Amino acid sequence: MSMSEFFLRPVFILIIGMCLHAPVVSQQAPGQQENEATQKTDTIVRFPVEPFIRLGVDVSAIGRIVAEPEVRQLEFSLDSEVSFNWFAVLEGGVLEVATEQETFSYTSSGYFFRAGFDYNLLGRPTPVQNDLVLLGLRYGFSNLNHEAPFFTVSNPYWGDHSGSMEPSSHSLHWLEFSGGVKTEIFRNLYLGWYLKTRVKLSETKDPDLEPYYIGGFGHGTRRAPVMIHYSILYRFNFR
Amino acid sequence: MISKTYRCIINIVFFLAGLILITSCLMEEVCDDINVMIRIGFYEDDPDNEDPLSVTIERLTVFGLGVDSLVYNNALSVGQIELPLASHQDSCAFVFRFPGNERNLVYDTIWFYYLRSPKLITMECGFVTFFQLLEIQHTTNNITTILTEDPEINDEFNEHVRIFP
Lengths: 239, 165
Prior knowledge:
The complex is a heterodimer.
Chain A: H1 3-25, H2 30-38, E1 52-58, H3 60-67, E2 71-83, E3 86-100, E4 104-120, E5 131-153, E6 161-186, E7 189-204, E8 213-214, E9 218-219, E10 226-237
Antiparallel strand pairs in A: 1-2, 1-10, 2-3, 3-4, 4-5, 5-6, 6-7, 7-10, 8-9
Chain B: H1 2-26, E1 38-44, E2 53-54, E3 57-64, E4 70-78, E5 80-83, E6 91-99, E7 105-122, E8 126-138, E9 145-148, E10 152-153, E11 161-164
Parallel strand pairs in B: 1-11
Antiparallel strand pairs in B: 1-2, 1-5, 3-4, 3-6, 6-7, 7-8, 8-10, 9-11
């Protein structure tokens, strides 16, 4: 990675973050403030559960493609309120990694899903639920097939070593704890982000080749316990 | 007013999330930092304590068995060393030259036996080999004992082996 890339990547990702951030700032409509002023109550009212499905797409993949164009991941999410303030969440997607470098080549393809619940800490101060601060728990599963048709390990003292890794499959079960926000920026259109930390439950793998990137989980060899996800969501109401 | 406060909190949290993003990007590993070496410390037993005392070797030379070049050449006051393991085979050996009495030099050879595990670290860095230490054998001219502290030899900076001269 060149020095310019090293410094430009985070700046670009910040711009994406600020673009997502800006509409929330401009969201304050004067009329809304007046409504809020008249509704001077801190009591969380138990409004009825609304039938809806919210469909989301993970846009942090854009930032990820900027940082690592070799890793392509597409992810969607579905959530719906099943009990007051409790949301059932299903997330899933596909992953593809393909690279051919001077010292190695590596390909990987697979799928993943997560299922679990979110709890809204804000309760619902108004009948329209346009802001949510969520704590969540998920079970995650990922399966992929990968191979390294050739690779060279540099060893200046003893001499370089070349080899290849046959195709093999990898599967992972994990638990995920998340905290995040969803906020309505236009009618039924939401922006959301989650900070997630994950704990591996069980793993089936070829001991010789660890996956470079595990779909829905992250880098296989790096110790990065916290990840961030940005998403755009649309709410389909059924009433 | 409640909603306004919450929106303010949300904005702050969005901002903090951006900061975390930047930090995580800047913390990306740089290839030069990935240095998979076996780390060896020199110790002697402490009669007053369970933990051994760290010692330094006055003048130390180390080279791989069958390799022409030296890893350490008459290095002075050495307390810890780093040695590169061979990634093309499951074992390798290093010859240690210690200062002896008067003008005599004392040689010891240490054989390391291990499992190799190539890992794709990043797209920029490519593959490196991690090792799992299985067994150590050595001559006993100057070295009395060798203990394995951590058999996993990867990109962390742990000490793996303790030598008691």
